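thread: overnight batch results

M.L. [08:02]
morning all. the overnight job finished for the chain we discussed friday. pasting input first so we're all looking at the same thing
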Amino acid sequence: MSNKSGGPSQMRHRPVERRQGITTAQIALVIGAVVVAVALLIVLNSSRLRRAAGVVFTYPTGVTQDGSPYKGAPEAPLKLELYSDFLCGHCADFANVLEAISKDYIETGKLQVIFRNFAFLTPESVRAAEASLCALDQSPASFWQYHDLLYASRGGGIAAYTTVRLKAYAQELGLDTQAFNRCLDSRAKAAQIQADLDAGRQAGVDGTPTWFLNDQKHVGAMSEGDLRQLLDSLLSK
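M.L. [08:03]
and the structure it wrote out:
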């Protein structure tokens, strides 16, 4: 088809860009950064492992009638029921807050914390939740150690929650790895994790962390100072 000007059709060609290859120096830089990152992750995980494995519980730990792990005296005047996902950043923050107030409230018999899995973010969330209950099979204290290590490992991203890593955490904590691995591989806790999720939704939970303090619903993490103020206000009544 000829153009209206009578001249030949013209096609515009973009100049071909010359691709620059990756230099040896750039490769070395990338490899160096990866090595540093891996080394840093190993160091961080080592310190986190020491903290988790070295926990000595000076307060009661146990399991509720519906199978949920708790820490703190069952007769405590304050009960905090926490719905949480192990891959949730705000959940990890709130776990740190609860640890910070533990000496003044949990260890003194003022507060009992009941943990309920609400694993909804990713498939890794579900696997981590199942793994936590496999640890619970061995003892409530094992659950809380495993719980702490799962949250502390969030810096490793999704890779920190593969089946290989979940099994490695159990070994690092000195759990019975044969029993743990058998539990995790068989998906023995899948039905319970789904039941916990369904129960949470029936209770009005649609995100994490969601927690009920003496049946009063709260959504999201709270700072240490604000939580202390809230607990003290309830204790004074």
